[in-house]
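re: that chain from earlier
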Amino acid sequence: MKPRPPLSPRPEIASLQPYRVAENAPVKLNQNESALDWPEAVKAEVLRRVAARAWNRYPEVDSVRLREALARFIGTGPEMIAVTNGSNEAILALVEAFAGGRGLVQPVPGYSMVQRLARVGGAAVRTIPLRPDFTLDVEAMVRAVQAPDAAMVFLASPNNPTGVAFDRPSIEAVLEASSGLVVIDEAYAGFGGDSYIPDLAAFPHLAVLRTLSKAFALAGVRVGWIVANEPVVAAVRKVLPPYNLSLFAQEAALVALDHADLLEERITLIVRERNRMSAAMAQIPGIAAYPSQTNFILFSTTITPAVLYDRLLDRGVLVRDFSSAPLLSRCLRVTVGLPEENDQFLQALRVSMAEDA
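^ sequence. v structure.
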C-alpha cells in the first residue's frame, strides 16, 4: 500500500492548544464555581426523576419542558429560548450560525474561550482593549462593529475576568451602532449588573446568554441557554446537534428551577463573602483588589504573579493567574469560596506577601 501523508487539521486548529486548567488543591478557588453545592434532598429528587425515565430512549430532542420552565423563570416565551450543553456550546452555535467566515468583535480582557470558539467556528476575531478602568472604549467599539465584516459582537457583562459590569449607555451605543448580532453573556448576572433580556423587543439583533453553572451551582450538569428573538433562535437550532442535552441534565435543571427560592440566600452569602474578602485584601501590603459584581475577585500584586501563584499553591490554595492577559500583567483571580476557604486564602495571601517584606 502506498504510504499516506500525515493528516493535518485546519491551520487555525493546528495552532490551538487543548484547554487545560489546574484542578487539584485543598482549597480550589480558580474556576468561578459556586461555593455551595445543592442539598442532598434536592439531589435525591433528581436521581428519582432520572431513574424513572427510560434510559434506552433519547431525551427530548428540543428540551421542550426545560425551555418552558426557563421561559417562566425569566418571563419570555419558550420560542425565544435555545438550550445548550453549557454556555460554550451556545457561543459556538452562535458563531457557526452568524459569524463563520466573517468577523467577531470582542473587548479584551474578556472571556478567554470566545476567541478559541470563534476560530473553531471559522470566524476572524478583532479585539478591542478595554480602558484602564476596565470600562468599554465606546468609540473604538463603535468603529469596530461598524466594519462591513463585523457579523457578531461579544460582550460579557459582568465581565470575566475583570468582574466589572459595563454601564448601560456604553452597551446601548454598541447595540445602536452594530448591524451584526450583539451577544451579551450574563453568566454572572445573578451577582450584579443589568439584564438585557427586557431589551430584546427593542433590538432584534440582540442575543443574551445565561447559564446554570454560576449562581445556580450546576457547573457539573452543563446547562446554558440563549434568549433571543425567534429568527435568531431558529438559526441557532439549525446548527445545534439533536439531543444535545442529556436526560440527566434536563431533569437536574428542571429540579433546580423548581427550587429557585434557594438562590437568594445563596447569592447573599457569596456577595457578603466577596465584600469581606475585598476589604481584607485591601489591608494586605502589595495587594489591590478590584471592585467586582461577580462571584470572583481580580487582584493585582507588587510581586511577580507567577511567584505569588506558586506560593499560594504551596499553602494549599489554587487561584488563577491572568498575568498574560491584556492590561492584567500583575493580576490573579480568586473565586469566592465558603467562609472557611476564604479565610485560608486570606491567611495564605498574607503570609505569601510577607515573604518579601
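The chain has a mean pLDDT of 95.
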